[in-house]
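Posted in: Structural Biology > Protein-Ligand Complexes

Title: Requesting predicted complex, zinc ion in pocket

I'd be grateful if someone could produce the C-alpha cells for the following input. Sequence and ligand are given below.
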Amino acid sequence: MPLINRACPECGSVDRVVRDAFASWDVDTQSWVLASVDDNLSCNACGTSAVTPEEIEATEEEEDAGAEGET
Ligand SMILES: [Zn+2]
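-- Reply #1 --
Done. Output follows.
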C-alpha cells in the first residue's frame, strides 16, 4: 500500500501541514489522546492558513528501508 503524504499547495512542503485538534486526557494510558480534529488546516512552513493539502505518494527513505530487497 503506497504511503500518502500531504503537501502544501502554496510552498510544496511536506510534513508541515497541520490541523487544529483537541486532545483529552486518557486515564488508562496517562496521556493526551486526540479527541477531535478540526477542519482548519494550515502550513507551518509558509504560514498559509486554510490550505487544502495535495495528496502525494510518499517516497521511501533509503536509510532503513531495504527489507524487500529490490534489485
Ligand atoms: Zn506551505
